Structures are given as structure tokens and as C-alpha cells.
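Milestone 3.1: sequence recovery, worked example.
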């Protein structure tokens, strides 16, 4: 489910999730993060959170967050030098000249999620801030998605016929969409230098990040590149859900479930895995994750399929053990899913080897693994995108390292070499004063030789470029490409 309707079911649980090499504005993003991150936008009609905190309380929270990262994060300096880290947090501290509201402080500190470059390290809004946005009666009444750095309306709830889906938007309430995009990206974490994971989430729920930066308005003045200036009233989630219920579906949807389709005419099995979280599969499939996968591969074996398409698009991860278990079903030789786990040895060090040490855990995902006795032996195609992160990126890492199949899609959102985890967290972690939620990993999974880490996600063997047109048509261009290749192979064989 996309946009505002997606919010009611998923936004309030975002902290349970992990976050094509499109570097359209790399220098501009860096400048904004380091120089102008405190821009507050135009005057707001309604503030998301007006609770005020003293300068001392804010500085305590900032230092608390900084110390959590420095004291616990094994690969904190993998993509940023220790010097740049210190300078960045010093610059944030210098901006705390007086008291701030919780929302203002969030806008100051949250971009550190983007700066740290770890998809499991993040500062997030409080549950109350999320609830205020989702429960507001005057939310932005359009969904917006970005392609090649340009903003397009992907769903119009307002009823104004001038805001046709696919319209290229120039500004909202006087703020350029280029600036809004950079602001929204800065609130999200990423692995290394890749920007795919934040781009994926901004496209999914841009309105949420928009409201965190620019609050809520009774009316929204939308300017398009065609020269139109349209004013529309804000709407509630309930009103927008009602609009969506009475219109044809728009866009592509990858549900958080496991789906198998046997395409007998081309000897192909299509397996979509929407999550590696057991609760998602139980809720949507009625079976446990493992039982569901066993059932699927039993059916695949009985079908005598020669080709297997595994779809991990929009799969943000979950339990790494399930990712390991999936790999056992498609690998046909002994393989190493994870090389080892690392944790802090000396937090004062910045060099990876000096800073970390191997942690001994009884984890079956580490070390040599044999394939399942019923593993698939045919040709494999793996579909990925910017939403493929965490445990899903671990699966991609195996396919890439062992050249097991053809990877199709966009650059993967998660790292394929070093993945820091949030395990052992049993409840939300909060900053002591403002109670903003934070995530700070204590250990890192090493998938292979970390020296091979480029700082980017896996680049597919075959890259595809989605567009607003393909989105509005509901086209799965990665799947289409996989089917084209299978047809070509069958034709060549014949």
C-alpha cells in the first residue's frame, strides 16, 4: 500500500524495520548537511511538537547520542574519519544557542542518521510526533515520488483535476521540491555512501518526512513546471483512504508476505519474499516463515522448474537466520553466509582492526554452510531495489560473492559486506530529555572480506531504471527483464 493509506498500517512501526547509483546531488547534499541543516522553512500553521527544552537538556541529549555511537558502534569510522565525525557533532553543538522545541531539535539532530552512514543507526521522531502527523486533519493531499531527481505527483487525493498523476512539481508553499528532497533524505539512515535506502523510503512516505520538516498547513500551494499554481486544502488519512477506496489502484505493491507462482509455460517459479520477519508472514500467510518457505520449495521441486526468480524488492530485512535459511535453498555448493561478528574492543581507536574484535557467538549463520538437500539447482534470478536492505542485502551478498545467479534491478539499499545490527534491543531506546528514539548498533556482521567494501550496495548485473510512467502503470520492470531473459534462454535452447 502506498502513501497516506500505507501510513496507518506501517508508519507507527517504522522503528521495527532495518531504511541504481543515482548521485544526482552529492555535493549539494553534503553542503546542506554541514552548513544549512537548520533551515526551518516558512512559517507554520501547526507545529508537530511544541514542547520546549533548555539549552543544557539539548546538549545533554546530543552528547548522549554521540557517546552511544562512539562507545558501541564497531564500524563508526568505516565511511567517515574520526576527525570529520568530531567536527560534525561540534557543529551541531554550536547550533544549540538557546532553548528549542522537540521538533526543532529533531531537525537539528536527525540528519546525523544520514551522516553516520549505517542503516541501523538512526534518530527518529517520538511516537507522539508520528501520531500527531498521521492523525492530523490537514495533511498534504498528494503523494509525491522522485525519479532522476525530479518530483512527480504519484497520487492525487485533493479532487483538483489540475493535479494529474505524473505532473512534475516545482514547489510546495514556496519551497522547491529539490530542497524538500534533500531535507527528507537527510532524516533517513543509509549504508555507506549509497543513497538508495533513503530514496526508497522518501518515495514510499514522502508526506511524513515533509511534515517533520515543514509541519502542517491548512492549505498547500502547489506549483508545477507547466506553470500552474494550485491551492488545495489539507486532508486527513481517513479522507484520503476514502478517496483511494473508490478509485482504481495505482502503483506497484510488494506485500510483506511470501508468494509463489509456478509459470509452467516457461518452466519457471516466481517466489516473492516480502519480509524476513516471522510476525509479518504469520499475519499475512497464516504460517511461520520457515514452514511457508519449506512449503514453497517443496512445490518448486515437484514442479520441475528450471528457472527460479526470487523477488526481494521492497524487502527491508528482518531475521538474518531466515535469510541464511533461504540461501540454503538456492545454493548448490558449500558457502559462507557470514564470516564473523565484530564488536568494540577499543572505542578510542578509529582503525577497524584496532577498534573491533571478533565476538564468539553460537550462530549457525557464521562459517561454512551446506545447501539444503532439496536445494534448487537451476538458473537463479534475483530481483532487488533500494528497499532491499539488512537481511535482504545479506542474501544479495551471497548471490554476488558466489556468482550464483543474475541480479536484476537497482543498487541494493543495504551493504553487502558490513551490516551492523540492532539485536538485543527489547524496547525503544530514547534520549534522556527529549525522548527522541535512537538506534545504535553494538555489533557488526562481516559477510566477506571487509576490504572489498566499496561503500555502496550491490550493483545489479542488469540495472533497470524505474520511472513515473512505469510506476503509474504498475509495471514491475525488474520482473519483466527476468522473464525476457528466461524466454531468450528457452528460445536459444530450442
Amino acid at each position: 500500500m502506498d502513501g497516506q493509506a500505507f501510513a496507518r498500517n506501517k508508519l507507527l512501526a517504522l522503528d521495527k524495520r532495518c531504511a541504481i547509483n543515482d548521485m544526482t546531488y552529492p555535493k549539494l547534499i553534503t553542503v546542506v548537511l554541514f552548513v544549512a541543516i537548520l533551515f526551518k522553512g516558512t512559517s507554520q500553521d501547526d507545529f508537530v511538537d511544541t514542547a520546549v527544552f533548555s539549552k543544557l537538556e539539548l546538549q545533554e541529549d546530543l552528547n548522549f547520542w554521540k557517546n552511544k555511537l562512539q562507545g558501541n558502534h564497531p564500524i563508526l569510522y568505516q565511511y567517515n574519519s574520526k576527525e570529520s565525525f568530531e567536527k560534525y557533532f561540534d557543529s551541531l553543538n554550536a547550533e544549540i544557542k538557546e532553548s528549542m522545541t522537540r521538533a526543532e531539535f529533531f531537525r537539528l539532530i536527525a540528519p546525523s542518521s544520514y551522516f553516520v552512514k549505517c542503516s541501523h543507526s538512526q534518530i527518529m521522531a517520538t511516537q507522539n510526533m508520528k501520531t500527531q502527523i498521521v492523525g492530523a486533519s490537514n495533511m498534504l493531499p498528494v503523494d509525491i515520488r522522485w525519479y532522476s531527481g525530479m518530483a512527480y505527483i504519484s497520487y492525487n487525493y485533493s479532487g483538483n483535476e489540475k493535479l494529474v498523476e505524473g505532473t512534475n512539481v516545482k514547489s510546495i508553499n514556496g519551497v522547491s521540491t529539490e530542497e524538500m528532497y534533500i531535507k527528507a533524505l537527510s532524516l533517513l539512515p543509509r549504508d555507506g555512501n549509497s543513497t538508495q535506502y533513503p530514496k526508497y523510503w522518501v518515495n514510499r512516505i514522502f508526506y511524513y518526512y515533509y511534515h517533520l520538516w515543514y509541519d502542517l498547513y491548512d492549505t498547500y500551494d502547489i506549483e508545477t513546471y507547466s506553470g500552474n499554481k494550485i491551492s488545495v486544502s489539507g486532508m486527513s488519512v481517513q479522507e484520503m483512504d476514502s478517496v483511494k477506496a473508490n478509485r482504481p489502484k495505482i502503483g506497484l505493491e510488494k506485500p510483506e508476505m511470501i508468494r509463489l507462482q509456478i509459470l509452467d509455460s516457461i518452466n519457471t517459479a516466481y517466489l516473492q519474499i516480502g519480509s524476513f520477519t516471522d510476525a509479518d508472514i504469520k499475519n499475512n500467510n497464516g504460517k511461520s516463515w520457515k514452514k511457508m518457505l519449506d512449503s514453497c520449495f517443496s512445490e518448486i521441486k515437484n514442479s520441475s522448474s528450471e528457472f527460479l526468480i526470487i523477488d526481494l524488492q521492497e524487502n527491508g530485512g528482518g531475521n538474518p537466520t531466515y535469510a541464511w535459511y533461504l540461501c540454503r535453498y538456492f545454493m548448490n555448493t558449500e558457502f559462507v553466509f557470514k564470516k564473523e561478528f565484530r564488536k568494540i574492543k577499543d572505542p578510542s581507536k578509529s582503525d577497524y582492526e584496532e577498534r573491533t574484535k571478533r565476538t564468539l557467538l553460537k550462530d549457525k549463520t557464521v562459517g561454512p554452510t551446506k545447501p539444503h538437500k532439496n536445494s534448487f539447482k537451476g538458473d537463479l534470478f534475483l530481483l532487488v531495489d533500494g528497499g532491499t536492505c539488512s537481511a535482504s542485502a545479506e542474501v544479495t551478498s551471497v548471490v554476488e560473492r558466489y556468482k550464483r545467479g543474475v541480479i536484476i534491478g537497482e543498487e541494493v539499499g543495504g551493504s553487502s559486506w558490513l551490516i551492523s545490527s540492532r539485536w538485543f534491543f527489547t524496547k525503544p531506546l530514547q534520549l534522556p530529555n527529549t525522548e527522541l528514539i535512537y538506534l545504535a548498533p553494538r555489533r557488526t556482521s562481516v559477510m566477506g572480506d571487509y576490504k572489498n567494501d566499496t561503500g555502496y550496495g550491490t550493483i545489479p548485473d542488469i540495472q533497470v531504471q524505474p520511472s513515473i510512467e512505469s510506476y503509474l502503470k504498475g509495471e514491475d520492470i525488474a520482473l519483466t527483464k527476468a522473464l525476457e531473459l528466461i524466454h531468450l534462454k528457452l528460445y536459444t535452447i530450442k
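The chain has two domains: 3-245, 258-419+448-493. The chain has 17 helices and 23 strands.
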